[in-house]
Amino acid sequence: MLYETADRKVGQSTLVTRRMSVSEIQQDDTTAKRFTRTKAPRDILQWTFLKIIIPAVILLTIWYLIASLTRISLFDVAQAFMRLMLEGDSQGTYLTEHIVASVYRVTIGFLAAALTAIPLGIAIGRYRLVDSILGPVVEAMRPIPPIAWIPISLLMFPANIVGAQSFIIWVGAFFPILINTTTGVKRTELVHIDAAKTLGASESQILAKVVVPSAGPEIFAGLRIGFGIGYMCLVAAEMLRGSVGLGYLIWIMWQVGRTGEVITGMLLIGFIGFLITYAFLYIEKYLIKWRQTVSV
Amino acid sequence: MAKLSVRNLSKSYPNGDSGETEALDNITFDVEEGELLSILGPSGCGKTTLLKIIAGLLEPDEGEVLIDGKVVEPGHNRVGYIFQQESLFPWRTVRQNVEFGLEVSGMPVEERKKRTDEILKIVGMEGLDDHFPHEVSGGQARKTEMARSLILSPDILVADEALSNLDAQTRNHLQEEFLRIQEITGSTILFVSHNVDETVFLSNRILMLSNIPAKVIAEYKLDLPRPRTRTSQACLAYRSQILDVLRVEQEKAMSLTRQKQSASI
Ligand SMILES: Nc1ncnc2c1ncn2[C@@H]1O[C@H](COP(=O)(O)OP(=O)(O)OP(=O)(O)O)[C@@H](O)[C@H]1O
Ligand SMILES: [Mg+2]
Questions:
Q1: Which pLDDT belongs to residue A10?
Q2: How far, in Å, are A70, A142, A243 from residue A139 at the CA level?
Q3: Interval A212-248: pLDDT, tens
Q4: In A, residues 171-200, which contact B (CB 8 Å cutoff)?
Q5: A210 at the B interface (CB within 8 A)?
Q6: How large is the ipTM?
Q7: Does residue B96 surpass a pLDDT of 70?
Q8: What residue in A sits closest to B81 (Cα-Cα)?
């Protein structure tokens, strides 16, 4: 949701810049013909400035403040980053290994969540009987925060720390995906289902060709939100046990008082999350271009 | 033998606390092969309910529907349906919408494409096939819906106020398109409308329904040659005759509601 509003704001700002160039055209109608549809170089400059440079400066300022509040500088952070890359941590584990471990766990947990939550969400959304049986079950499990599952998960997977951590991610991602899928499926318009029926579609064809595409935007939003929550849970889960992962890195470095490494870990967690969320938004935009109404 | 027979259909909807709304009351009529039968009735009288039962989308409380003399069960798909509201799949392009019926029947891609091209040409939507439904006009969306139903060459086509929400010019144009397409395909058509002018222009026969619960209250056979002129003497005569009956029905409905109001006070 947060990203959606952010995106809209960016959309508005490009609109504003375009409007400015329109007023320029009106002031100077001798050059009017030259400004037709193509973006002037000045617009592109403004665009990079608004969308890339300003956010980067704000981020740097935030991290500068955080670093100085913990009595180190961004230079120390950069040094810590280089050390982790080239020499690894105290056990010799390189930064890339921490990253790979975290991304691997979140991928496993997230895929498991998607593969279970989407079919279940479709069944609950489409069949009233399933809804009335499983609806209360879901509502009684959902309020338990994923973090509260950590002790149980360690007991459930005693010898398998990756299993326990993936399980936590699964719990975190499962419910947002499930709820969004259910909502989307319930919103399928009756007339689309009726139309498919009169055109000879079977129930499984109705599911595959009407219900799922119609709920596509909601399912995708659920995946994005579920990923975000699963990812947060991962870092918490990694802090508890194990010997590798970005959450583990932050925790262990805090214990030995290496603030530069702690901030490096945090920056990377943010950066990876950023990349994946933008990948989601990008795919989403492409897949559901039919939802986009007339754009300016 | 009639192409379509509707026998003693009755249907009520549960209606909150006040019991039931009786929508259809013992409706019976036949439609002959290749005929264009219009159903004319006031808003909310049960026209959509009737069509949905005929198309197998809704179960009647009583009565049955026969196609070619055989009773059809709910869930059959022998009737093409043009819905009252916009019904194109918004996630599919015009072409993909039109193709839907062939796709679910498992027809090979190439033949599907050929048939789709043909029908898009018949309704005059060639060249717009890559557009999504939100990128075409209301009239073009209607033509696409027609093509989507007609591509399966249904024996029977039902159209629920297919042309109601269009401006007069587009509507007149699409009425003519409708007749042209019927001539090509030879479909039996059941055309629901609340527009007298339109039904007189299009139909072989008109059934008039009463206010809710719907009963058949009048039937007109229009022995007029086609193409018809909307303002010809014969057309105007039918129109005024039908409008008179509608006026009486309207007055009845109003006095009924007045009675109900005074009873509730
Ligand atoms: N699903 C439903 N549940 C309860 N009542 C319904 C339902 N569908 C229709 N009705 C009621 O049945 C009556 C007939 O509805 P229907 O949609 O068949 O009318 P219609 O003749 O198609 O009207 P219009 O010309 O406005 O489209 C109406 O009074 C309506 O309120
Ligand atoms: Mg209706």
A1: 38
A2: 42, 5, 35
A3: 999 999 999 999 999 999 999 988 888 877 789 999 9
A4: 191-192, 194-200
A5: yes
A6: 0.90
A7: yes
A8: A198
Q: Residue B261: pLDDT above 80?
A: no
Give the model confidence (pLDDT) of A75-122 as tens digits.
999 999 999 998 888 888 899 999 999 999 999 999 999 999 999 999
Ligand 1 mean position, distance from CA A78 (Å) = 69
CATH of segment(s) B4-72+160-169+191-264: 3.40.50.300
Report the SS3 class of residue B24: strand
Per-window interface: B 92-151 vs A, CB < 8 A? 92, 100-101, 103-105, 132-134, 148-149
Nearest to A191 by CA among B10, B48, B112: B48
With b for 16 or more beta-carbon neighbours within 10 A and e for fewer, the B213-242 pattern comes to bbbbeeebebebeeeeeeeeeebeebbeeb
Distance A234 CA to ligand 1 centre (A): 52
Multiple choice CATH, A92-290, 3.40.50.150, 1.10.3720.10, 3.40.50.1980, 3.40.50.300: 1.10.3720.10
pTM: 0.83
Q: Is the CB of B158 under 6 A from ligand 1?
A: no
Between chain A and chain B, the number of residue pairs with CB atoms below 8 A apart is 67
